[in-house]
Design a protein that fits this description.
838 residues; alpha+beta; Immunoglobulin-like; Jelly Rolls; 5 domains; 8-stranded parallel beta barrel; 6-stranded antiparallel sheet; 41 strands; 18% helix; binds beta-D-galactopyranose; glycosidase; beta-galactosidase activity; GHD
Length: 838
Amino acid sequence: MIYSSNMNNHTLFSVLIAIITILSVTHSTLATEVSQDGRAILINGERKIILSGSIHYPRSTPEMWPDLIKKSKDGGLDAIETYVFWNSHEPVRRQYDFTGRNNLIRFLKTVEDAGLYAILRIGPYACAEWNYGGFPVWLHNMPGIELRTNNKVFMDEMQNFTTLIVDMVKKENLFASQGGPIILAQIENEYGNVMAPYGDAGKEYLNWCAKMAVAQNIGVPWLMCQQSDAPQPMINTCNGWYCHDFTPNNPNVPKIWTENWTGWFKAWGGKRPYRTSEDVAYAVARFFQTGGTLQNYYMYHGGTNFGRTTGGPYISTSYDYDAPLDEYGNLNQPKYGHLKQLHDVLHSMEKVLTYGDILKTDMGNSVTVTSYKYNNISSCFINNDNTSVDATITFQGQNFTIPAWSVSILPDCKNEAYNTAKVNTQTSMKSKISNEAEQEPSSLSWSWRPEIISSYVKGGIGEFSADVLLEQKAVTNDTSDYLWYMTSVNLDDKDPIWSEDMSLQINTSSHVLHAYVNGKEVASQYAQGHYHFVFYQKVNHFRKGKNLISLLSATVGLQNYGPFFDKTPVGLTGPVKIVGKKSNNEVVTKDLSSETWTYATGLQGLDNKKLYSEDSAYALTWRNDRDMPINRKMIWYKTTFEPPLGTDPVVVDLSGMGKGEAFVNGMSIGRYWPSYLAGKDGCSLNACNYRGRYDNNKCVSNCGKSIQTEYHVPRSFLRDDVNSLVLFEEFGGNPTQVNFKSVRTGGACANAYEGNTLKLSCEGRYISAINFASFGNPTGVCGSFQKGLCQGPNDAKTILTKTCVGKETCSVDVSEEVFGAASSCGDEIKRLAVEIVC
Ligand code: GAL
């Protein structure tokens, strides 16, 4: 287009209109139209089956994202769902961070590059076992604020952040309406679960959330999860282990499952959750059987809570979640593979599931046949909800056996393509290989130094004083886990409490409390189960005259869920008392709660001097002498190491350590607490039974043990040569057992049914041997398989050795053609059991 300088205004206007028209036409051809009806989400007018999985970008590294997303796509997902984490992006009001693991745009573009859709849960309240549910603590400290209710101060901040995110995303054309990957967005999170106590103000807030979201004009539908009264046009969705009984509050929106919990999170001192592949698959199949068309796994990859990002309190650093991709991004088999097969079958039925007529036939005994008919296609689901009895039914002249608590899917209503209880995917066993470069743990050489606390425990020196016990968040703004509360009290023998037997009694909502009197440690205590406890300890060294009481209160992740969770106090709630017991058993107390308390936020080495940092000015203050203290509180340890060779994920084993925070090359890999052991009871000795409803207490393991001894060190944190590991040990530990390991597949087992093709893989390594193979009715479990009474005449082990050994992956048809006719198996479906070594 040529502009002549004498172009008049009218011509200029016409030219501009022409340009705008061209742009908008080009734009609309790029745009993806997302709409919905009572059956499904429609993409460009077509109803879709959408299988999605949650990956929270700050819980892995940008270097891991492409692989995680590729594996998600290979696993049969169409979309990736993530929250947006407000407190990571706006740690200080109006100071933003979108770098590194917080690079939301890079994450969304990685999803886009892989050809997947994205579901963006802006919240900005997240929950997610994330520190304070994702809220920045400065928000809580704003004058006049009330969170998650009809409060102008809060709503202004929420709108400000929501708009900031929407604008950033729009600028990069990432909404589907702009041609980008984001097909849905979410406002708030499960407000419906907690809303009642907020009364009318809660309802007003909810309506405001909807209006505010709509005004963002993002061109794709908005979701509200667990919100049965979601104002239109918000689509209310379901979260839980099962959502087949869910019905949305509007007949013109589809049945959407935003959180299918693939397992559960872990907590310090807790047991290890485990949800079987059979049960997750059952829940998914039931959802699609009952008209669901969009579901999201929470989590598909759980990842790691680096730094101080865990919520809770007491959520562990690992957020593995027993998800299909494990904490490090490896396939969690058989969950990943079993669900992948289900996804393939569901996708193959997309048209009939989203457009077909649905007919439900109750077969009695908790068995239902649901058939979908579209044009000349008929597809069926047959579920057996019975928790113990298998069912044999006759349907359209054919017999079908449906194992208890399972769903069979028959894309043609005749042949079973999938049954949720028949796992034909290998179970991989991960081994942790000690660092080849270092060999023995003892080869790490350690230096150390104490955390200097004398100015608090001997000097009582702080930043300011107040005649009241202050709430911890209000003082620290959560810039540190630690807050010192210090006061002086004059005692003399005329004091009514003065006696031989004097104690400190402290009512506290600290997660951990360390008490010192006159520079000497009294004791430490931590919350177990309830996050309010009474610290009661005898103190033998109160003296006449001035006594200094120094109390160090620590948090271990701020609460992230519940009505008014943000108001749960942390720190010394009080009262703080000295209790004197006279020889005549008379008890006298002196309340110190309204004394003058001096406050200091943080620890000097951790928060001020940053001793973990690579360029710390205090590098020379470490000691290399032989007197390294072991099992002493408040000690820093430092070592250097070479990383394990190769590209396998790396963990550092912190067995022997107490509680603290670990840093690799100056970066926090999270809090550690291996010394906190889970209760001894509640783990079943028998194998986990997938039948019956799952909850997070079912099938737990690891009783009496630490929930986490191994901590993920992302490869991108490491240099090829020398790296540093710095540990701040709060409780006392022994670093001599600390060592680095790489995580790899050590072997795998499979139990595949006749008629399937079994794929075996060492996931990047070679299959080195076949330990066991038998086709027929083998018994036992992985590691102790045994041949059964019937078996095929051809030696299964020889066949598998020939087909698989020396290869990364191999496939074998589980059939009589391959293994020969196995006689006297009766009606039993024949299986191939295999154990491979990598
Ligand atoms: C849900 C919540 C998620 C997560 C989950 C448990 O209620 O929406 O954010 O906290 O529970 O892992």
